[in-house]
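G-protein coupled receptors family 1 profile domain-containing protein
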Amino acid sequence: MTKRRGKRLLSASQQSVQLAAIVIRYLLLIDCSEKSKDEEEDKEKKKKEKGEKEKVEKEEEKEEEEDGEGREMVFEKEEKDGEEKKRETSLTVCNIFNSMGPTVLRIVRLVHGSVSSNHWSCRASRFFTFAPSIVLILHEVVMSIERYYSLFEPMSVCSTKAVEKMLAGAWAGGVMLTLGLVSSATIVQVDLGHNLYSTACRQALDTMVMKIIFYVSVIMAFVIPAILMFTIAIKVKRFLKQRRQRVEEGKPEFLDRAYAWRLKDAQMLVSIVLTFLVPYALIFFYGVILLITKVDLDFYFSFSILNISGVLAFSNCISIPLVCLVKNRQFREIAWQMLSCQP
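Structure:
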């Protein structure tokens, strides 16, 4: 009995141990599975956190890049504004001299009758008459070249230093060319008929050196700038016409607003150039016709033509702002603010 009971007890104890082992194993398996699940969740959380951190870092990098681009754009805009201010300031000063010089000479002529009593006064009066005009012509050439590059070569726009050098060259070149023009000016007696004589300030091209200096100065001061500006105006006009035709055809790539300011400035430039060239062209062609035909015209007729064309040429300080007001809405707004005393 005891042996059987012992065997039964052993078998029961073995079964209990086996059950306990099974339970322990089951619990261990549960713990292991729970640990693996927790580890997977932790890994997923870490991945999510890393992804969020990477997103935040990328967003910060993008913001920094945008800030950098914005700063570059602001810097470029400030540079462009500085260039425009320098160009406008130089052009304004030139226009003031261009309007004041002939006006003062006309007043002196009305009061005293003549400002050309000798050779040096004749040359001085011509210098102060032509110097601002030639400088203004060279300024228009600089503006034409700059607008040409901004329209057709936007990636090769002139830098600030280049604009400063061109403006300084316009002033220096205008003075040098004017000296070449007035170096041969002298006082000449003019027969008015009926035993009446007068004096006039004219060019005395007696020697070959004087002729070379005078003709080279005329070509560089009037002919080359006129051809250059007229060529740029025609090319810009064709470009505007082609773009308008393509816009009318409904091509969306030609409706980009990035070209709007260039097109408006280019159209205004064409109008300014044409308005600017016509009076000087009248004076130039009149002088060329007289040199070729060698016709001795009546003094009063010649005096009237030269003075009328001179008034038209010197009035560009009024005609050019009028063209800007007609062609540009921003100019009209600024003028209205100035007239209405608005801040």
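The longest strand covers residues 185-193.
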